[in-house]
Amino acid sequence: MKGWNTSLVGFLKTCRRAAYLYIKQREKGMETLYKATILPHLVLHLASRARLFKEYKEVQREKSADPDIQLICDDSNIFKWTALIKGPSETPYEGGVFQLAFAIPEQYPLLPPQVRFLTKIFHPNVHFKTGEICLDILKNAWSPAWTLQSVCRAIIALMAHPEPDSPLNCDSGNLLRSGDIRGFQSMAKMYTKLAAMPKKS
Question: What pLDDT is stored for residue 15 in this prediction?
Fold first, then answer.
């Protein structure tokens, strides 16, 4: 709730700033310039915030609807989110909880969020050091119809069905391409246990 209130204040400040700039430019006879340069940027910014507010409210309302995903908005910046996702069953990631970081552009949802794993994971489509994810919907197959929740669901699906032919982790991809399923699963389970499971005291 704190994040919601903070972001709402920022949203209202942006609206007031837009109105102030419009009045000043109109007084100077520069209304056309304002509409051509400043206004489009402000419209995108406000539309992005409105969309994220909507998603925030949906997440709060449907917290128990998807037990595999927990989305969290940053307390001070609605363009930064994190998520906790559960490893899919019958995969080497089962039993693990993986943290994702979302950096959302001001052009969202026209542009996709930047998403990366904060939790180490051994997966052909995830860079082992940076957590970068190779997923088409986060690049050229993005659509404004996608939400942060559905992006999380797509990442869980990718965990269950890796694509070894477009690897960011070559070691992982090579194991799958060579048919060494047991070797891949052994490595993936080991890193899941080390990085994504609570330590037993």
Answer: 57
Q: At 156, phi and psi to the nearest 5?
A: -60, -40
Residues designated as active site: 134
Task: Name the range with the highest mean pLDDT among 28-32, 47-51, 188-192.
Answer: 188-192
pTM: 0.81
Which DSSP symbol is given to 51? H
Residue keyed to tokens 């993986």:
98
Place of tokens 């957590």: 131
Residue 87 and residue 197: Cα distance in Å, rounded?
10
The two tokens of residue 88 are 């899919």
Asked whether 183 and 172 are in contact (CB, 8 A), the reply is: no
**Domain boundaries of the chain, sorted by first residue:** 3-61, 65-196
Q: Is 117 left (phi over 0), alpha (psi -120 to 50) or beta?
A: beta
Tell me the CATH architecture of domain 65-196: Roll (3.10)
Closest CA to 155 of 181, 172, 136: 136
| 108/186 Cα distance (integer angstroms) | 38
| β-sheet with 114-117: strand ranges across | 69-73, 80-86, 97-103, 114-117
pLDDT at 151: 98
Beta strands (DSSP E) in the chain are 69-73, 80-86, 97-103, 114-117
